Amino acid sequence: MRIGIEGQRLFRKKKHGMDIVALELIRNLQEIDQINEYFIFVKKDEDPCLKETSNFKIIELKDSFYPIWEQFLLPKAAAASGCEILHCTSNTAPVHSSIPLVVTVHDIIYMEKLSLFRKGFSAYQKFGNLYRRWNVPMCIKRSQCVITVSEYEKQRIASFFHIDDKKLKAVYNGVGQHFKQITDLHLLNEIRMKYHLPERFFFFFGNTDPKKNTKGVLKALSLFNQTSKKKIPLVMLDYDKKELASLIQEIGDPDLTSLVKLTGYVPNAELPALYSLATIFLYPSLRESFGIPMLEAMACGVPVISSNTSSMPEVGGDAAYYIDPFQPEQITEAIKIILNDDSLRKDMVEKGFKNANNYSWRAMAEHVLSIYQNLAREK
Questions:
Q1: I need a labelling partner for 131 at 20 to 30 A (CA). Which of 103, 198, 222, 290 fits?
Q2: Is residue 3 within 8 Å of residue 36, measured between CB atoms?
Q3: 24 closest CA partner among 164, 165, 175
Q4: Is residue 369 a contact partner of residue 33, using CB atoms and an 8 Å limit?
Q5: Cα–Cα distance between 88 and 101 in angstroms, integer?
């Protein structure tokens, strides 16, 4: 079987959630499948992080505006390569293609009232939401199989699009093997110095997407430091200073400025050390389809505060402390409880290790490969 996999963003230096999922899928398929032929379609960029093997060919398509790349260049290249299946990995896909289609729809948040033009989205994010709202319904309709990442999201998609259960599959994401508790003091000190990290800190993946609840986290931090004798700062990844200043002004607590540390982009390989240095990992999103960072933190031995909404209790199991993400004071209270209860903290860490062990990229790749094989048998 000749299988095409779309990986348009894989070679960009700053990889994010869907990029990591596609990259891990391909790397693990390379390990477990030496029979089928694969064609990986990417855009040339500065981080060529995949290597060809005997049955995996990397095809670099010319740079172009993403809709043009996806709607015209990708299906043309897939057809020229003789692909019998084309797997599009990041929600959208070509709407006119003769090749049987598999689409990974990570979520349908952009189809919900929560998201389209809500305050906080950048112009790029608004365009992306419009494009997905146009593209995803058509691709779901014409695809042979729709993959999503949790039972929660599967139910959301099935309900919204009225899809037959046989066509829609939930395939859990994984957590990388390099995510483990780092005890090497030299390495920890290097990371602390490189990113100028404080001795104790709360860790949060800041994001301008409203679903990430950055404003709620900052409110919780403000409440905590107003009511605690010892102030503990917040470390955030790759967040814009102007956006942060605007949020702090909205909250009305100028003292927060000195209590938030922005690291800039942190490569995936360095994240385990950063997790390991953290006191608590905050993941109180308003809505998630899965939540990979929650598992990464657990694998690194960090207590996790997460939300009692959407997929997070499904993925976090009994290992996280769940709160209502719309109530910042609940985040604050959870922080205080974990900080003041050594027994609870130890129990959360132990349960976190066990829960993270339930998820692997290899299992994900094996599940996806079985989907390819079933489609081939049905032809």
A1: 290
A2: yes
A3: 175
A4: yes
A5: 8
